Amino acid sequence: MVRRQRSANEGRSMALYEHVFLARQDLAQAQVDALAEAATKIIEDNQGKVVKTETWGLRSLAYRIAKNRKAHYVMLEIDAPGSVVAELERQTQINEDVIRYMTVKVDEHETGPSVMMRKNERDRERRSERGERNDRGPRGGFDGE
Q: Which of 63, 58, 71, 62 is nearest to 98 (CA)?
């Protein structure tokens, strides 16, 4: 019977995760970006890898959370062992600027933009179409004669 020796990385399994956090509404976009960079640093310092970062922008909440009606949404796609995710969640929990977070283990990461990014683009297109149609005036072309 032949036994092989374990390599240093064999005991650690890398898994794929999506980590979404909601930052307070009164933060500037630069501060939200700094939070995402801090999360990325935590992951990379612990031998993990951030595959993609998406900022979904300031969006309305379904209900108030800690006196906030809106929040900045950010999603990180992560390739890292579970211990890295535990450390990321521990650090996120301490941060007063983050009002909610959720990490989900996934089988594979989405290629291209996420559903939320595609939804944002579709909403922007709809708004611009409505703006073009409403150029006729407040009553759809009625001149008031």
A: 71
pTM: 0.72
Per-residue pLDDT, averaged over 114-139, amounts to 67
Q: What is the DSSP letter of 6?
A: P
CB 107 within 8 A of CB 16: yes
State the greatest distance between any 2 C-alpha atoms of the chain, in Å, as a whole number.
98
Containing 38, the helix (H) or strand (E) segment is helix 29-45
Q: Which 3-state string (H, E, C) describes 86-144?
A: HHHHHHHHHCCCEEEEEEEEECCCCCCCCHHHHHHHHHHHHHHHHHHHHHHCCCCCCCC
Q: Is residue 43 within 8 Å of residue 83, measured between CB atoms? A: no
CA nearest to 100, candidates 16, 25, 15, 17: 25
Please say whether the beta carbons of 36 and 74 come within 8 A.
yes
pLDDT at position 60: 94
Amino acid 57 reads: G
pLDDT, tens digit, 9 for 90 and up, residues 101-114:
999 999 888 777 77
